[in-house]
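Hey team,

Filing this mostly as a record. A colleague (T.K.) asked me to run one chain through the structure pipeline before their review meeting, and I want the input and output archived in the tracker in case anyone asks later how it was produced. No errors, nothing strange. Just documentation.

Input sequence:
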Amino acid sequence: MERTPGSHVTEEEFRALFEAGRPLRIADLRAKLGVHQTTVWRLMERHGVLRSVSHNAGFCALRPMCRFDASGFYETRGILFFRDGDQ
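Output structure:
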């Protein structure tokens, strides 16, 4: 799905993709939104989305849905996230 020129992704539209409470593949996020990869990175930054530290940083999750352990890691479905980002 390609978005029509000039249309914008709303906050509600973006957050709705995460309603299931599971991490999403970044490639799937791009496809569902119908936007360029650069736009996906900007939206992720704006909405506090973390990239996985496993799976070649190919997954993302909203920070509030992550339950970090004492070491700062969150693991779900074999996908690992770090509290301080993907550095």
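Quick notes for T.K.: The radius of gyration is 13 Å. Strands lie at 24-25, 49-51, 59-62, 73-76, 79-82.
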